[in-house]
Amino acid sequence: MQALWFSKVNLKIERSMEELLDLQQNDLPLKDNIKAQTQLSDARLSDCISEGLHILDLCSGDLGDADWYTSDWLDRTLKNASVTFVRAFDRWRQLFQAATKQLKDAQQQEANALDPKIQNEARQKIEEAKRQRNLLTNIGTTRQESDFYPYRYLASEGFLPGYNFPRLPIRVYIPREEGEFISRARFLAITEFGPDNLIYHEGAKYQVHRFWVPPGGLTSRRTTAKLCHVCGYFNIDTDDRCDGCKSLLDGSTSLFVNLLDMPNARSIRRERITCDEEERVRRGYDTSTHFRFAGLAGGRPRTVEATIGKDPEQPLMRAAYAPQATLYRINHGWKRQASGFTVNLTNGEIKSAPSDPHDQAGLRLVVSDTENVLLIYPPPEIQQDDRAVATLQFALQRGMEQQFQVEEAELASERVGSGDKRAILYWEAAEGGVGVLRRLVEEPNLVAAVATAALDRLHFDAATGDDKNTKCIQACYECVLSYSNQADHRLLDRHLVRDLLLDLIQSTSTRRHGGRDYEAHYLWLKNLTDSRSALERQFIDHLYKTRRDLPDSGQKALADVNTIPDFYYAGSHACIYCDGSVHDDSAQKTKDDTIRRQLRDHGYRVIVIRYDKDLEQQLAAYPDLFGTGKKP
C-alpha cells in the first residue's frame, strides 16, 4: 500500500538522492518541494484509500486468514506513509553523514599537520571520503546498477516492493579502484562482514577494520539482553524470569550480553595474512539465533499452538507457530575466544584490546528481522539425542521443501533450547515469506504429508519402512546432506528418525487454544453454549466426536458489527451461527440477514448451521475450516 501512496505522490526522480534530500543541512531533511508533494490533501488521500479498498477486495479471501489485518489497517498505513517515507532514508543519512564527517576531519588534519606522512594519510582519507559521497549520490556510476539509485534503495529498505533486493541489508565499503559498496542480507552479513573478517572480492582480499559511525557515535546502537539457554528466547528486559518459558534467569540458565546493533562497515585491502589469521577465519565465528514472539492485547504472545499425534491427549510432538516474530542473530566473537569484540564507539575502529576511554570491550554484534517462525518440540527420546534431533531438523525441512515445492534457501532452521524445552526453530527465509509454516498447525493432515515426503527423501518406503537405498549408510546429498548444513554432517543419520516419521504419517495436528488441550477446550466451549440451544451443544459435541477443529471461542462479542456469534474462529475470522426453529420467523430472518450482511461487509466469514439439515453434511461442506474429521 505504500507503493500505492508513492504512485499518488508521483515524484520524478532521475538518478540521485540529491534530488530528494537537502544535503546542505546537517540532518539531511527532505527538500521543501518534495516534502510538500508528500503531504496529500484530504481529497487525494481519500481517493488513495478508496483505491486501496478496491485492491483489498480482490484478495478478501486471503485477508480472512490474516490475523495481522484489522479494519483500520489501510487507513493507518496510508496516513503514516509520509512519515515512513522520511524514515526510509535514515540508513543513507548515516552513511552520508559519516563520509562528510571523515572529509571534514581529514581536511582539518591536513591543514594542521606538519609531518608529511600525516599530511599524506589525511589526503588519502579526503579522497576516500569524496569517493564514498560520490557513490552515495550516484556520481560516476550507472544509476540502475547502484545500490543508492533511489528506487532500488527504497526497495531494499522495504518501503517499495522489490523482491530482487535483500531487505534492510548491511553494506561494506570496498576501496577498489574508485571504491564501491557491496551489500548482504543481514543474517549473512553478521558473519561475512564481521570484525577482522576477510572478504574476497574481484580477485583481491579486504579486511573489515571499522564500522561506519553516525553523528553522536555508536553508543545509541548499544543494548543489553538476557539470552535464555532453556528455550532460546531473547529477553529485552532484565527481569528474573524468561518471557518465553518462565524459567528463572541466572548464570546457569541465561547469558547477559552487551549488544551492538551491527552498523555498516569499512574495509582495507590486505596483500598478506598471517597463519593465525588464516586459522581464525577457518574456524569462523560463534553465532546463535534467538527469537521473540510478537505480542497481543494483554501481553499474551502471538502464537498458534498444536499437538501432533494419533491421539490429541497423548501427542508425539507439539508445535507453535508465531507470525511476525522477531529473530535475532548474534555474533559472539571468534570460536577460539567467543567473548565479544572491542569497538571504539566514537570512531568505529575495531581493536584487539581496549586502549582508549571510548573503547568498549565484550560487545557482541546483533542483527534482527521479522519472520514467520515455527517451533517443533520433538519427543523426549529425540530431544536427548544430539544426532537424532539434528537429523529430524533436516528431515522435516526436506519434507517441507518437497511437499510445498520450495527451494532450500526459502526455509531455514536451527536447534534452540535445552532439556524438555529443546526445539527445532524453522523460519521462512524467502523475501516476503512463503506462507507454509502456518499450515502445519492449522491443517490436520499436513504434518503427515510432510513426514511421508521426508521418508521418501530419506530412502524409506512410507508404507513398510523398508530401506530403498542401502548404499546410503547414514546420510547422503540425495537425502539430508547439503552445502548449507556441512557443520552438522557428522551428526546426521537417517535411521535415527525413521520410526518417528512412520508414526507421524498416521498423525494429525490438533490446535491448542489459550493453553488448553483439546479435551479441556471442548469442555470450556460447551460451558459457553446457550442453555436454551440444543443445536449449539450438538454442534460442539459433533466436532469433538469427529476430532474436527474446535472454534477459538464461543459467544464472542464483535464490537465493529455489534453482534455475538455462537462460535468464532479467530484465524479465519469465521462466525458460526446455530439457527434453531426460532430463526424461521420472518422478522427474525430479516434481522439475521441484516447482521450477517454487515459481517460480510466487514470482512468476516459467516457460516450458518441449520437445525433442519444433516449436521455432518453441513460440516463436511467446509473442510478448510472444520477439517475432514473421522468417524465417531
Oligomer: single chain
* Coarse structural class: alpha+beta
Shape: globular
Question: Mind describing the biggest β-sheet?
Answer: 12 strands, mixed
Q: Give the % helix.
A: 25-40%
> What is the radius of gyration computed over CA atoms, rounded to a whole number of angstroms?
29 Å
Low-confidence stretches: none
Alpha-carbon distance between the two ends:
47 Å
Number of strands: 21
Average of per-residue pLDDT values: 88
Approximately how much beta-strand content do the residues carry? 15-25%
Q: How many helical elements?
A: 21
What is the topological layout?
Elements: H1 2-9, H2 32-38, H3 42-58, H4 60-63, H5 73-79, H6 81-87, H7 90-112, H8 116-136, H9 150-156, E1 170-174, E2 180-184, H10 186-192, E3 198-201, E4 204-211, E5 222-228, E6 234-235, E7 254-261, E8 265-270, H11 275-283, E9 285-292, E10 304-309, E11 317-334, E12 341-344, E13 350-351, E14 359-377, H12 380-383, H13 386-404, E15 411-416, E16 423-428, H14 437-442, H15 446-457, H16 498-504, E17 508-512, H17 518-528, H18 534-545, E18 553-554, E19 567-569, E20 574-579, H19 586-601, E21 605-610, H20 615-620, H21 623-626
Parallel strand pairs: 1-8, 7-14, 20-21
Antiparallel strand pairs: 1-2, 3-4, 4-8, 5-6, 5-7, 9-11, 10-11, 10-17, 11-14, 12-13, 12-14, 14-16, 15-16, 18-19, 19-20
